[in-house]
Amino acid sequence: MEIRKLSKLEQLHLNINNLNGSIPESLLNCKNLVKLIFRVNYLQGNISKLDFSRLVHLQILDLGNNFFMGNLPKSLFACKSLTAVRVSSNSLIGPISPKITVLTSLTFLSLSNNSFSNLSEAIKIFAGCKSLVTLILSKIFYNETIPGEKNILGPEGFKKLQVLACGECSLQGEIPPATQPASGISLEEVESSQLQNLLVLDLSENRFSGTIPPEFSYLTNLEMLDLSWNLKTGQIRTSLKSLNFLSKFNVSYNDLEGPIPTGGQFDTFTESSYVGNDGLCGRVLQLSCSTNQPVRGEQYQHLADINLKKLQLEGFIAGFVIVFLSVLAVQAYNHQMSLFYRKKQIMDLSVIS
Q1: Are 21 and 44 in contact (CB under 8 A)?
Q2: Do residues 256 and 277 touch, judged by C-beta distance below 8 A?
Q3: 189 CB contacts (<8 Å, ≥6 apart)?
Q4: Is pLDDT of 291 > 50?
Q5: pLDDT confidence of 194, banded at 50, 70, 90?
Q6: Distances (CA, A) of 324 to 317, 329, 338
Q7: Phi, psi of 284 (to 5 degrees)
Q8: How many angstroms separate the Cα of 286 from the Cα of each of 98, 164, 257, 293?
Q9: How far apart are CA 303 and CA 326, in angstroms?
């Protein structure tokens, strides 16, 4: 049966099937398609040349983990019903088209592990996708510099965003103060600003410098913050204790220093959250911040170990002394008995004689 004759086809799930070749153009004539999933195959070809414009009902497109080339097809922006697009782990290149903002229903977008470029413009474009909930940008925009301008997201950017992943991009520069409230703005206005619904923020394995932005303290719904393997300096801000839902926190392998905050969620994080920062100190690292010596609990253990060794040594000495005295006592007793028998023998000899 020819694919083009499947006029009523709404869903096509062919993920993880070892398929190769290219997507047949006749498939794009199935105008009632709602879900098209080809994830994890060996498909290839230039997807820029594919015409998706007839798939007006398409809601989910998943082409991830294949060998496609080109850029995001311009015809894709005609699919106004799209809610989720995944093209991660292909060989796509080029800048992000601003036309993607016409996809007003788009909530999920994964572009990771490709060769897209022009991060500065891409951030502004993505901020215009007002329905985005999940944005995965890991392993793209390699070695680019993150723009340092304030409020790059604009007043309305990313209000619904819950997951933002930009790990393993080798991005450099300082994290922009995108969430910094202007002077005179009330707390209610701060809470309604961009990124306030963010739950997951992954900025790991980049080259971000500077201190941890104080604006992170305003992300009160944050559950995961990963800044590991960067070049962050300064101290871990105590204001981060206000993040009451934070369940995963990782700043390992930076150049941070000073005391690790205590209280709140910080009492739940382990040593693995902080390793690779030689200047950090605190109970979780068993290192006192005042003397760079073991903290009290470790000192008590250290003293206990010393006392145990002392007891063991004293026990050994006491045992040795007892044994030694016992030997002397036995020798003295034997000597006395020897003298007694010798004296007795002499007396016996005198009687006989």
Answers
A1: yes
A2: yes
A3: 181
A4: yes
A5: confident
A6: 10, 9, 21
A7: -65, -25
A8: 51, 33, 15, 8
A9: 34
Q: What is the DSSP string of 104-133?
A: TT--EEE--SSEEE-HHHHHHHHHT-TT-S
Give one word for 182, left, alpha or beta, with left for phi > 0 and alpha for psi -120 to 50.
beta
Report residue 117 as tokens. 């470029």
Query: Among residues 92, 223, 222, 226, which one has the least CA distance to residue 166?
Result: 226
Rg (CA), the chain: 36
**CA 28/CA 13 separation, integer angstroms:** 15
Does pTM top 0.90 for this prediction? Answer: no
What is the number of residues in the chain?
353
Rounded Cα–Cα distance for residues 208 and 254 (Å): 10
Nearest Cα neighbor of 117 from 59, 50, 55, 72 is 72
Mean pLDDT of 247-271: 97
Digit-coded pLDDT (tens) for 36-64:
999 999 999 999 999 999 999 999 999 99
